[in-house]
Design a protein that fits this description.
This protein has 272 residues and is an alpha+beta fold. It is 28% helix and 23% strand. The protein binds a DNA duplex (16 and 16 nucleotides) through α6.
DNA sequence: CAATCAACCTGGGTGC
DNA sequence: TGCACCCAGGTTGATT
């Protein structure tokens, strides 16, 4: 999916484009993706005005003036696009929120794994978000990171991507952070010494920051709220670079292995 | 408790 | 062209 940098880029776009607009109607050909049900959501959000757009972990939240919240998870291939009414239909467009001022918020999703969920209020939202670990750039301090790393014997890459331990990190940024920190993705997390843990913490924040700076990675499906591609894919360190020369200049090649069932890219020479 | 795997669905790429 | 097969930014739930 969209990982933290992609979801954050979408959030910023949505914040600029849809705050202050009213939701008029919802149209869908994929009602399963609208929860708890299309009827309930239609009833709850119809006529409500959008007040703000937040992000926590990989979840976007659209706050409405009636106290309810629309939460979205884009999973692997979800897009949230703001278009003018009448603009050409978007690829894989499945849920359309008709807005005031002739706009539409379109939820497109090739694989239909993503969802839009109605949240009744602040308490329910907090309950949903409580299952996520600390947020990079916020409450994920270096000290907290070190504790998380020390408390698991699972492969470090799995721990980085475990949303209950740390929020927002997916496959791309986990691979690149581990390369930047020169840590082998298969290492048991608790085997990292304090110096390695600190290096990985810095590397993680660095690659996430780059992701945001380049407005996300448009490997295949990701687009921002305006339908624009990001550019981080042009700056991948090792992600997707199987067989290519190590970007660290060690004369080795990037290798693809499987860790926890996910394709994992790393340099066996540089990453110890 | 941890590891593994299937499932949710669809599309793109590759090789025969 | 067709078809089989593999891979995919995520997460959940069942099984071992």
């Amino acid at each position: 999916m969209p990982e933290l940098p992609e979801v954050e880029t979408i959030r910023r776009g949505l914040s600029d484009l849809i705050v202050g607009r009213k939701i008029l109607e919802i149209l869908t050909d994929s009602p399963k993706q609208v929860q708890p049900s299309l009827e309930v959501v239609k009833e709850a959000v119809g006529g409500a005005t959008i007040e703000k757009v937040n992000r926590r972990a990989k979840i976007l939240q659209i706050f409405l003036d009636n106290g309810q919240i629309l939460a979205f998870h884009l999973k692997l291939t979800g897009r949230l696009l703001v278009r003018k009414q009448g603009a050409p239909k978007d690829e894989w467009q499945h849920v359309v929120f008709r807005l005031s001022d002739g706009l539409e918020l379109r939820f497109a999703d090739a694989r239909k794994f993503g969802w839009a969920k109605l949240i009744g209020g602040q308490a329910e939202l907090e309950k949903l978000l409580a299952e996520f670990g600390p947020e990079p750039f916020d409450d994920l301090t270096q000290e907290k990171f070190r504790q998380i790393v020390q408390s698991s014997s699972r492969p470090i890459k799995i721990v980085l991507m475990d949303q209950q331990k740390i929020s927002g990190v997916g496959n791309i940024y986990a691979c690149d952070a581990l390369f930047l920190a020169k840590v082998d993705p298969r290492r048991p997390a608790k085997s990292l010494n304090p110096e390695e843990a600190e290096r990985l913490y810095q590397a993680l924040e660095e690659v996430l920051q780059r992701g945001i700076k380049y407005r996300g990675a448009s490997d295949q499906y990701y687009l921002d709220a305006r339908g624009q591609k990001g550019a981080y894919q042009e700056h991948f360190l090792v992600y997707g670079k199987n067989g290519q020369p190590c970007p660290g200049g060690c004369k080795g090649k990037v290798k693809r292995i499987v860790v926890g069932g996910r394709g994992t890219f790393f340099c066996p020479t540089c990453q110890k």
